[in-house]
Amino acid sequence: MDLQMNMPNKPRAVGIAVVVFLAFTIVAGGFVTVGPGQRGVLMTWGAVQAGVLDPGLHLKIPFAQSVAKMDVQVQNSQAAETAASLDLQDVTTTVATNWHILPPDAEWVYQRIGNEAALVEKIIKPAISNSVKAVTARYNAEDLITHRDQVRGEIEAQITSELKPYRLVVDSVNITDFHFSTQYAQAIEQKQVAQQRAQQAQYELQQAKVVAEQKIVEAHAQAEAQKLLQETITPEIIQQQAVAKWDGHLPEVLGSSGVMPFLGNLGAAKLER
To answer: What InterPro entries does this protein's entry cite (predicted)?
Structure first.
């Protein structure tokens, strides 16, 4: 008998549980939270409503309304594009573009383009590709490196211009890499080596010129000193220097009478007397 009494209670409990679940679902479905850095796009039966939902908690009609969340923070798209330079060299340029959706226009972007993934594929990547190719064609391959910052600025300006109609803001564009064909890269390296050798040869030539000029100056100084010495030394000065250096001893010579002082002309004159 207890079993018969419990049987009607089980379906009732199940029914209560179902009602509670549906009530919770309806209540929960009446709220939506838009996170920081996001904007909500409200749709009623799939039709986009005007305006955007700011970050925070919002009410909506369960089942009838839904909210698409759009990221309005700065996002990064990186792409490598191969294009021909002005001198017809293939150059692969890797560009990193930082961009974001204008927050008040999140509804406009979603309605006409879609979410962020669709935005990147349909708008961002084509704009980057077109801009890189257009700017690369204005420069010789080598100038792309030597004028890197100028090239980056032109690419950024063109991407900005192409994305503006889609309510997108370009925060910055950076060139992370230039890649050339193997043959052209080798040609650039050989040219740099040749320039370095030419600079080294020029330096050595300048050094040799300086050394030669120094030798000429030294030789001229020595010649001037020798000339001055010849002009200032007289026989009297030579005799005075000889007397100053004499130690008081006459040189000795070997004669028939043995060793005797050498008197020179003066001694010979005395002997004649």
So the answer is: Band_7, Band_7/SPFH_dom_sf, Prohibitin
How many separate helices (H) and strands (E) can be counted in the chain? 10, 10
What CATH number does the domain containing 118 carry?
A: 3.30.479.30
pLDDT tens column, 70-90: 999 999 999 899 999 998 899
CA distance 273 to 83: 117
Domain endpoint, select from 41, 71, 101: 71
pTM for this predicted structure: 0.61
Residue 186 lies in a domain: no
Q: CA–CA separation, 242 vs 233, rounded Å? A: 13
Structural domain total, the chain: 3
pLDDT in tens, 195-234: 667 777 788 778 888 888 888 888 888 877 777 766 676 6
- Are 59 and 70 contacting, i.e. CB atoms less than 8 angstroms apart? no
Q: Longest Cα pair distance anywhere in the chain, in angstroms?
A: 186
